[in-house]
Amino acid sequence: MYQQVERVGHDGAMNKQPKYRQVADALRREIDNGAYPPGSRLPSESELSTRFEASRNTVRSGLNALVSEGLISSSQGLGYEVRKHEVFELNASRFENLTFPQNGDAYSTDVTNAGRRPSQTFRVEMTPATAYVADRLKVALGSTTVLRFCHRFVDDVPWSTQATYYPDWLAKQAPRLAEPGDIAEGTTRYLAAAGIEQAGYFDEIATRMPTPDESRLLDVGAGVPVLLWTRTGYADDRVIRCTITTFRGDLNRMNYEIGTLPDRNGDERP
Amino acid sequence: MYQQVERVGHDGAMNKQPKYRQVADALRREIDNGAYPPGSRLPSESELSTRFEASRNTVRSGLNALVSEGLISSSQGLGYEVRKHEVFELNASRFENLTFPQNGDAYSTDVTNAGRRPSQTFRVEMTPATAYVADRLKVALGSTTVLRFCHRFVDDVPWSTQATYYPDWLAKQAPRLAEPGDIAEGTTRYLAAAGIEQAGYFDEIATRMPTPDESRLLDVGAGVPVLLWTRTGYADDRVIRCTITTFRGDLNRMNYEIGTLPDRNGDERP
DNA sequence: TTGCTCAACTTGTTGGTACAAGCTGATGCA
DNA sequence: TGCATCAGCTTGTACCAACAAGTTGAGCAA
Fold this sequence. Notes:
Two copies of one chain form a homodimer. Chain A is of the alpha+beta class. The first copy, chain A, folds into two domains: about 10-80, Arc Repressor Mutant, subunit A (Orthogonal Bundle); about 90-255, Chorismate lyase-like (Chorismate lyase, 3-Layer(aba) Sandwich). Chain A has nine helices and ten strands. In chain A, the strands form three sheets. In chain A, strands 4-5-6-9-8-7 form a six-stranded antiparallel β-sheet. In chain A, strand 1 and strand 2 (about 80) form a beta hairpin. The longest helix of chain A is centred in the N-terminal third of the chain and has 15 residues, at about 20-35. The first copy, chain A, is elongated, with a radius of gyration of 24 Å. The interface between A and B is large, with 58 and 58 residues. The structure holds a DNA duplex.
């Protein structure tokens, strides 16, 4: 039942692409052209099967490729939808200082300023340092750290997770870090009051596909990478914290302003 | 021929996961445990088919999920291999100045310092500004820009593409920008000699799955996102360039040092 | 009108088969 | 010995069939 689709006379150029890829390429082209705008639904598998003279499985392979590219998503019973991308800008270089109302970064402020509604769940726990965290905090692997963990939402859509690790010595010096509740005035301000002023930080940005855990927390399907942001904060020569933030890659972009640059106004798309 | 694998007595907990997902989860666990270390080969589809008492198609679905996660890769005739991740660090905040030997960023220097061999192909062309570039360069959509394009390799492995766009007015002021050859002393130094000194820049970092073009240029298969780095350079109030760099997300990590921080030495893993 | 059921759509899962095509090592010929 | 060939492994592509399960709207019942 195998049939190689050679269509030489039909296509002009020698066409050695497998059928499922032809399907994917054709649909991708139509999506790019705007024939299927963001948010619209694609024809059903059986319709595409008829159109491309291919079996349902072959069409599914093609669609699956587009899902992996992050171009479309599917839901059982509903069909395939062209994905929308509304990117949220994160200004990471704005130096953290005491004027920020809460928790070290400008999440709530930025989201509210964008006219969206922020919400989050929060927990505190003591946890042994993983290799990654131990390296950055300059503590022994497995030694105790205080973890303050946020799961953040924008308009009730899962947006990011943020895990901040503090070394044990700092938690002794600033005991409220290890207490379960929120720190009303913000951790940065609280630490400053305790004599710990963050003087600089080191940011690392990486990307990869989400682990199953991350897929669950951020509610991302196949084809959406995560953006990993690790910020290690220093006061003098001491590491005072390590913050690992996981973003949905399709909804976020990080910005850094360095040196002298004019006032920015207009917004732009990816 | 459909059979739901309910295995209640066997598994204890109610097991409602589809079979292909059970396969993926089991293999992921074994890879994480080190049973299949990076670079090693997985059992063949038919062996897995026997082990999991599933059809080859079902096993392929499970393996496909792991490929999409970026955990393994497959090659026809060879089998499935657990992916290795050697991450290359890119220090993006080191302020660009005249001491850099070439082309605006520290690519060759960094790669050579890491004991790897850099190589690149290069081309120059005049091209109309896309919406993305026009926005950043503050020029009209479709107006002429000079594009200087690099395709970069590390030890002959495709690593990144870098497209730098210069506005037309700048190319008139610094005509060698539009000439096809390399600028020996580096574009930054050349522009400084022409009276254009970059005073600051604005960086944007995003991630997504590669387009087919990017997959080809960077030689990435399914499951590897790209890291997009856009740097817009300013001199006084004028935008002098916009550089869009595309990295393989599995091989690169970007770093920013901001504020005062101690000397860093030890290296670390993701 | 309101609310429920159900048919008819959608995609998801699992099985089967067949052949194409890439890789490797054994075999055999020169 | 050296080289070409080929058998036997691997994954890749393509088809078929059947049933599970989520969604929606039509239509009937209260």
